[in-house]
Amino acid sequence: MSSTEVTKDKLAADLKVVIEDAEELLKATASQAGEKVAAARLKIQDSLDVAKGKLARLGGAGVEKAKEAAAATDDFVHEHPWKAVGIGAAVGVIVGMLISRR
After folding, report:
1. Radius of gyration, alpha carbons of the chain
2. pLDDT tens, residue by residue, 14-32
3. How many domains does the chain have?
């Protein structure tokens, strides 16, 4: 995973937390009256709607990349089945050695 993908994943996770926190704040202030509070709540709700849309698009892009990676892996396994078995066995041995050291 590249640093750009890690940054996007971190940004998406942070954005999700901010959205959840803002929604909780809106729920907590639902009983507050006043023109300024109502205007602020409306502005926050609009911003949340935009952020949710961006988060959904970001998640959709991640799903598409995952599908592409799965298709590429499937193609590789079908074209080189013995290499795939060898790679899987090697990874299994390495993981087993790492686990046994603990």
Report:
1. 23
2. 777 777 777 777 777 777 7
3. 1
